[in-house]
Amino acid sequence: MKIFSSLDEFIDSKLHIDAFVPTMGNLHNGHLQLVEVAKKNSKNTCVSIYVNESQFTDKKDFDSYPKTLDADIKKLKDTGVDYILIPEKRDIENNSEGFDPVLEPKILTNDLCGKYRKGHFLAVMDIVHRFFQIIKPNIVVLGEKDYQQIVVIKELIKICNHKIRILSCPIIRADSGLALSSRNNLLSEAQKKIASEIYKSLVLASSLYEQDSSPREIEDEINIFFSRSLIELEYFTIRDLKTLQQPNDNDLIALIAGYLGTVRLIDNIIIKSHLR
Ligand code: AMP
User: pLDDT at position 276, please?
Assistant: First the structure.
C-alpha cells in the first residue's frame, strides 16, 4: 500500500487508477464495504481521505467532524487497498478546474438535503469533478447511504462527460438498524438507541407501502411517528428511485433527514424496485 500525502507526488507517479473511493475519513464498515467492492471489480483501488470544508453548510459541523487518520490508514491497510490519497485543498485547486456553477442541475441540488443545506451539492459536484480530473478513474464506488449524492454525481458525469462508471453499494447498518455514519460518533449510547427510530420509520414506511398505502398516506403516518420522538424531522418523502422527482408508477425510494440534538442524520430505503 502506498500513501500519497503530496498530490504532486501522486500526479508525478502517472498511475492508472481503475477504481476510486472518495471518503472524508473516520472510516467504518460502510466505507470498507466500498473498498471491498472496488477491489473485487477493478485492477487497483485508490481511496481518498479529504474533508471538503466547502460542502459543510455549518462551520461547527465541519469543526466537529471526527478525524482519525492513523486508525483510517490501519483499516485501509488491513483491507489491502493499493493507494491512499490525502491531498491538501490548495494542491487540489491548483491541479484541476472547478465545476461551472452555471451548469448546476438545481432541480436536483436544491431539493431534499439540498433544500436544507444551501450550496452543499454544488460543493460536492465541484470537489468530485476536481478529483475525477486528477485521478481519472474508470470506476467510482459510492454508498447508497448518500443516495441523493449518487444521483448528483450521475448528473455530474453526464454534464461533464466524464468516462467514469458508478458502482453503488447498499447501506451498512448497526444491529439496531442505525445506518453507520461518521457522525454517529458524536452520539451517546442512549442517543444511538433513539437514532435507530429512523430506520424503524423506514421499515414502517416500506410495510405501509406493501399494504397499499399511498405515498401521501405514508408521509402522514411517518410525520405522526416522529411527532412522538426526540428526533426532529427535517423531511420524510417518497420519490422516484431514478430521478428523485415526485413519485409516479416507477420504482420508489423513501428518504429521511432529521436532527437528534445537534447531529444531523440521513437514511433511506428502496420501497419498490423492479430489480429486487
Ligand atoms: P463520507 O466519508 O461520509 O463522505 O462517505 C464516503 C462514502 O462512503 C460515500 O459514498 C458514502 O455514501 C459511503 N458510506 C458512508 N456510510 C455508509 C454506510 N453506512 N453504508 C454504505 N456506504 C456508506
Answer: 64
* CB 120 near ligand 1, within 6 Å: no
Residue nearest to atom 17 of ligand 1 (CA): 30
Residues in CB range of 251: below 8 A, 6 or more apart = 240, 241, 242, 270, 272, 273, 274, 275
Q: Return the C-alpha cell found at 141.
A: 464506488
pLDDT at 67: 94
Classify residue 152 as exposed, middle or buried by CB count within 10 Å of its CB (0-12, 13-18, 19+): buried
Beta-bridged to residue 23, according to DSSP, are 49
Question: Is the Cβ atom of 145 under 6 angstroms away from ligand 1?
Answer: yes
**DSSP designation for 179:** B
Beta-strand relationship, 45-49 and 139-143: unpaired
Q: For residues 101 and 126, what is the distance between their CA atoms, to the nearest angstrom?
A: 9
Ligand 1 atom closest to Cα of 145? 12
Question: For residue 143, how many C-alpha atoms fall within 13 Å in the half-sphere facing its CB?
Answer: 25
Minimum CA distance residue for ligand 1 atom 19 = 180
What is the rounded average pLDDT of the residues 236-256? 95
